[in-house]
Design a protein that fits this description.
The structure holds two protein chains of two kinds. By secondary structure, chain A is an alpha/beta fold. Chain A has helices at 3-18, 21-49, 67-73, 76-99, 103-111, 130-138, 183-204, 209-216, 237-271, 274-279, 284-316, 325-352, 356-382, 387-393, 399-409, 414-442, 452-461; strands at residues 54-61, 118-123, 150-156, 173-177, 223-225, 232-234, 445-446. In chain A, the strands form two sheets. Chain A has a four-stranded mixed beta sheet with strand order 2-1-3-4, with helices on one face. In chain A, a hairpin with a 6-residue loop joins strand 5 (223-225) and strand 6. In chain A, helix 12 packs antiparallel against helix 13, helix 13 (356-382) runs parallel beside helix 15 and helix 14 packs across helix 15 (399-409). By secondary structure, chain B is an alpha/beta fold. A six-stranded mixed beta sheet of chain B has the order 5-6-7-3-8-9, sandwiched between helices. A four-stranded antiparallel beta sheet of chain B has the order 11-12-10-13, with helices on one face. Chain B has a three-stranded antiparallel beta sheet with strand order 2-1-4. In chain B, strand 6, helix 5 and strand 7 (178-183) form a beta-alpha-beta unit. In chain B, helix 2 (85-95) packs across helix 3 and helix 2 packs parallel to helix 4 (129-141). The model of chain B has no long low-confidence stretch (mean pLDDT 84). The chains are: A alpha/beta, B alpha/beta. Strand 7 (445-446) of chain A pairs parallel with strand 14 of chain B, so a sheet runs across the interface.
């Protein structure tokens, strides 16, 4: 085996993939632009895109105590004051979330912003019943703002503010809304209705709402304390879940980027017939090894850039303690082993077919190796010590994906990691052995694309 | 190569093939499409491996150990389309073990030599097929190989480039390199080679120097052309009838530019020629030496079940790629 030829092939493979405009744009610039768009432009568009609502809100107040207060609570001045508070808070929330890199938070904050609605509140009286009530509810249609139609109908129960004789529970209300009514407006109406009913109930029982709220509200924080930095932060298990899932996604991304490019370049070399010229200069095994190593650098580059970006983001938002150090240590060996397994299969498939289209059917088993852990990922990230997680993390083929998720989620016994690494090594070697045989025969085969059965016959033939 | 055999499924591509090539010779490997030329070459190159028999290249057990001393221009030629010509040639040179230092100068010199001085920075896909072929030829010789194997090197070239390539091949041979030149166009081999190996249906049917092949193949025809021209008509018919009446002539048939008189068995060609030359009003009389194509057809006629016309047609048809078909192999 000539190492300098392998190096040469690997160098060309890397350069022809990673040093192209397509790769730089598709691999780095487009994701960066998309991320920026999500963080900054998206919220701006969402803020400006919210429709202004104009319409009627009908009320059937069977309690007879709610309507007037409710109308006051939804007066334009009240709503404007409420909205001014909210918009101010929301804008600040979007800004803070975006600055801290919390894209989801920024989006959530941005989507809660609402323009001031112009609502006409009509009292339909307390006595509406049966068909007459249903007729009024049916009038709540999918009206446009231009129609100035009925947006919603609020029906307050007779016992909403006073308990009925012999009952322990109060009644409530039913809000009938247009199918496409802005959920923020629904929230506003319900919030006001609840506040008013709560106030009336409190007054009827001779108490103050604020006092009741103060009595029922118990403040509590769950925090994670870092002994190293002396800082504490909210204990958010959701973020831990995301971090472990991201570890798996990173591994998949690195493996699939390199593997997919390897498949493409192999097919290109075969279909452009340059492969025979190459085989006159190096052996099929040297060619395959060089190509696999070259694309491993491409996958590794992706891993470093995206993994580095994710780590940097956690450090930036002061969540450095969430960085799974053990996962960072084991990510490189698991990446190499998983990549070798997948890339060898990709090289074998690429050598056997004449065009990318023909590779689709042969790709199914390879895609399964990726898809199975991806589908199991949520369960594994939620409970990394479950039997399912432990068994699958030591299984051939998709074990490394599961194991890296477990490692990122929490402590995994060393022996389990060792077994997983050993199984992954054996799988990679078997895959390389299979690929080397298929690659040698397949490169010079033309005509009908082979099945997996045919490829196994090639292995026996080689 | 000694007793080499290669099969693809049930198809025997090469069988009992013996071949020994002297250093510095220019050997023509000829035969119709599908005869087994490319398979033999791929085995020499260790791209394919024989099922049986022995093989050694440049004193090594296989070409795997001597690839850097071999230049190969395959029948199915390809380039990296998106790569620039200079980068492609440097890459191929590096794969052949050429030191990086000075390779740029070599590439430039070769591009000048093949009359492509301005393509260094062009992408390979921007070149015409003929230009790409010249670039591929450079890739096969840039490392100054001891053995140069050219599989159908003239296919797709125009006459001007054919002449240029012929000169380059001769230069390589004169430079002491061993050249194996495979073609189904036997005239090309006749023009270039000093030794001929003919393959038919995977078996070697002839292996000798061109001079010896020619020397021992008897002249059996005389070409002649009436003074009145060579277009069909009464003059041509009259001349044919006159020559046919001569004793040593078996038959007279039309030929490209006149007529061909088939000499009777046992007749001295010189005397037959003298008799034909005695006929009045002939513009040209010459002995027709058998071509390699005639010799090949003479050898394989009757073996393949094809008529002479069909064999000639197959020899003159364009080169067909000797591809290994997936289904054929698995049959």
């Amino acid at each position: 085996m000539n190492v300098s030829k392998i190096t040469r092939v690997a160098g060309r493979e890397f350069a022809s993939t990673a040093l192209t405009k397509g790769f730089i744009i598709g691999g780095f610039i487009v994701p960066a632009v998309l991320m920026a768009a999500f963080m900054f432009i998206g919220p701006m568009l969402i803020n400006r895109g919210a429709p202004e609502v104009v319409g009627e809100l009908a009320v059937v107040d069977k309690s007879g105590e709610v309507f007037e207060r409710f109308r006051a609570a939804l007066s334009p001045e009240e709503i404007e004051a409420w909205q001014a508070d909210r918009v101010g808070a929301t804008t600040q929330g979007v800004q803070e979330a975006a600055e801290s890199g919390d894209i989801g938070g920024a989006l959530t904050a941005a989507t809660t912003e609402l323009k001031v609605p112009t609502i006409r509140i009509t009292n339909l009286g307390p006595d509406l019943e049966g068909d007459a009530l249903n007729e009024q509810r049916a009038a709540v249609r999918d009206n446009s703002a231009e129609d100035d139609g009925r947006l919603a109908l609020l029906m307050v129960d007779p016992n909403a503010t006073q308990r009925a004789e012999g009952e322990t529970d109060f009644g409530g209300y039913t809000l009938t809304v247009q199918p496409k009514l802005d959920p923020r407006l629904i929230g506003l109406i319900e919030g006001r209705a609840q506040r008013v009913i709560r106030e009336v109930r409190a007054e009827n029982s001779g108490q103050s709402v604020d006092e009741i709220l103060a009595l029922s509200n118990v403040r509590g924080d769950s925090v994670v304390y870092s002994a190293e930095t002396g800082q504490e932060r909210d204990a958010d298990t959701g973020i831990q879940f995301v971090v472990s899932f991201v570890a798996m996604a990173l591994l998949m991304m690195g493996v699939m980027f390199g593997g997919q490019y390897l498949l493409t370049t192999t097919i290109e070399e075969k279909s452009s017939r340059v492969v025979e010229v190459l085989l006159s200069s190096c052996s099929a095994f040297e060619l395959m090894t060089g190509k696999i190593l070259g694309q491993m650098l491409v996958g590794g580059l992706i891993l470093v850039v995206y993994g580095g970006g994710a780590t940097g983001a956690l450090i930036t938002i002061s969540m450095a303690d969430l960085i799974p150090v053990q996962a960072l240590i084991f990510l490189p060996p698991f990446f190499v082993l998983t990549y070798l397994m997948i890339a060898a299969l990709m090289a074998a498939i690429g050598s056997a077919v004449n065009e990318l289209r023909e590779a689709q059917s042969l790709m199914a088993p390879v895609m399964m190796i990726i898809m199975v852990p991806y589908m199991l990922g949520i369960f594994i990230a939620q409970d990394p010590s479950s039997t399912l997680a432990r068994v699958t993390s030591m299984a051939p083929a998709f074990g490394p994906f599961v194991m890296i998720t477990r490692i990122a989620a929490g402590n995994v016994p060393a022996w389990e990691i060792a077994v997983s690494l050993a199984v992954a090594t054996a799988t990679a070697l078997a895959s390389l052995w299979f690929a080397a045989k298929v690659f040698r025969v397949g490169l010079l085969m033309f005509g009908k694309p082979p099945s997996f059965g045919t490829m196994i016959k090639w292995v026996r033939m080689a | 190569m000694r007793g080499v055999r290669k099969t693809f499924g049930k198809k025997v591509a090469v069988d009992q093939f013996d071949l020994e090539i002297e250093r510095g010779s220019l050997l023509g490997l000829i035969g119709p499409n599908g005869a087994g030329k490319t398979t033999s070459i791929r085995m020499i190159m260790s791209i394919l491996f024989p099922d049986a028999g022995e093989l050694s290249v440049l004193g090594k057990r296989s070409a795997v150990e001597s690839k850097d001393q071999i230049g190969y221009l395959p029948e199915e030629r390809g380039v990296y389309k998106k790569m620039k010509v200079g980068a492609f040639l440097r890459h191929m040179a590096a794969l052949k073990g050429v030191p990086t230092q000075g390779v740029g100068r070599k590439v430039g010199e070769w591009l000048d030599r093949v009359e492509l001085p301005d393509v260094l920075s062009k992408k390979c896909e921007e070149l015409s097929k003929g230009m790409q072929q010249k670039v591929q030829f450079i890739a096969s010789v840039i490392h100054e190989p001891e053995l140069l194997i050219l599989d159908e090197p003239f296919s797709g070239l125009d006459p001007v480039n054919m002449r240029l390539l012929r000169e380059l091949i001769r230069e390589q041979c004169e430079g002491g390199r061993t050249v194996i030149f495979s073609t189904h166009v036997m005239v090309q081999a006749e023009e270039l080679c000093d030794r001929i190996v003919m393959i038919h249906q995977g078996e070697k049917v002839l292996d000798d120097s061109l001079a010896d092949i020619k020397a021992r193949t008897p002249v059996t025809s005389v070409l002649f052309e009436p003074m009145s021209g060579h277009r069909p008509g009464p003059d041509l018919d009259a001349a044919a009838a006159l020559v046919r009446s001569l004793g040593p002539i078996d038959d007279v048939v039309p030929h490209d530019r006149g007529l061909e008189a088939r000499i009777a068995n046992g007749t001295d060609p010189a005397s037959a020629m003298r008799e034909i030359a005695g006929v009045d009003d002939l513009a040209r009389v010459e002995l027709k030496r058998p071509t390699l194509e005639d010799i090949f057809i003479g050898i394989v006629k009757g073996q393949s079940g094809e008529t002479e016309a069909e064999l000639r047609e197959r020899l003159r048809s364009g080169a067909a790629v000797e591809e290994v078909d997936t289904e054929e192999v698995m049959a």
